Amino acid sequence: MRLLVGLGNPGPKYEGNRHNIGFMAADRLVRRHDFGPWRARFQGQAAEGAIGGEKVLLLKPTTFMNESGRAVGEALRFFKLDPSEVLVIYDELDLALGKVRVKQDGGHGGHNGLKSIDAHIGKAYWRLRLGIDHPGAKEKVISHVLGDFAKAEAEMVERVLEATSHHMGVLVGGNASDFMSKAAQDIGARPPKPYKKQTTAEAGGDAAGPSSGRKGMTAAERLLADRAEDGGGQDKGALGGALKKLFGKD
User: Fold this and answer.
1) In the predicted model, is pLDDT for residue 2 greater than 90?
2) Which of 39, 62, 72, 185 could form a disulfide with 10 if both were Cys (CB 3.0 to 4.6 A apart)?
3) What DSSP string runs through the chain?
4) Which residues, at least 6 apart from 184, have a Cβ–Cβ distance to it below 8 Å?
5) Is 64 flagged in the annotation as binding?
6) Could you tell me if 45 and 64 are in contact, meaning their C-beta atoms sit under 8 angstroms apart?
7) Is 149 annotated as a binding residue?
């Protein structure tokens, strides 16, 4: 069993926020792979399924970001998991949009969701960091992370969500380096393909079945799709400038 946690804030007000890219990634994983429906559990929304032949519980804490550790700790204790069997997916100011990094252990870097998780289960869990760019000044951080992705960013966000969900079987299987390489290649080399539901046997390979289009999209993903279309492909090179030192969040 693996516990995969997408971080974000609950409710329509926050759905399209940069801070909620962890929720977006979790939603994409549920729809792409072999998962049951979301249901209220462990102080969040949880879905059970499999990725790459590995049994997985996906969790979106509904405690709000700063108390995410309460939900993660409850699920960890229920399934008697070790922190090393947990992967947390979250937004990273210190990475440019389109960059994806995986690591185990380490500091929270000012991220309040990670601070809370550290307090409840320690630091030995895995982290999937999805870049959202830094606004460039400390006073702009809160409005940046709690702001929605811009039209010019929508295509890149879609690439990240598609690549990470497509190759998640590699990461769950224990090969973080290979996962990062495959995801980076997909994000940088081609436009995103429409996501398709995968069976357990197909996880990590090409999905089968017809494209679902926008059927079943979350409100946040519909917003990103609308912005990508409205943008008409403009500003495709907007990946952010030089990275700056990470400041505090919310």
Assistant:
1) yes
2) 62
3) -EEEEE----SGGGTTBGGGHHHHHHHHHHHHTEE---EEETTEEEEEEEETTEEEEEEEE-S-GGGHHHHHHHHHHHHT--GGGEEEEEEETTS-TT-EEEEES---TT-HHHHHHHHHH-S-SEEEEEE----SSGGGHHHHHTSBPPGGGHHHHHHHHHHHHHTHHHHHTT-HHHHHHHHHHHHHHSPPPPP----GGGTTS---S---TTTT--HHHHHHHHHHHHHTTTTTT---SS--------
4) 99, 100, 163
5) yes
6) no
7) no
C-alpha angle 41-47-49 in degrees, rounded to nearest 5: 140
**19 catalytically annotated:** yes
- What is the C-alpha separation between 204 and 191, in angstroms, rounded? 18
Q: Packing angle between helix 219-231 and helix 21-32, nearest 10 degrees?
A: 100
pLDDT, residue 123, reads 97
Backbone phi and psi for residue 105, each to the nearest 5 degrees, phi listed first: 70, -175
Query: Pairing state of beta strands 2-6 and 54-61?
Result: parallel
What's the pTM?
A: 0.78
Q: Which amino acid is at 160?
A: V
Single out the catalytic residue among 19, 111, 134, 144.
Answer: 19
179 labelled binding-site residue: no
42 labelled ligand-binding: no
Q: Please write the tens of the pLDDT for every residue from 118-138.
A: 999 999 999 999 999 999 999
Query: Is domain 2-231 in CATH 3.40.50.1470, yes or no?
Result: yes
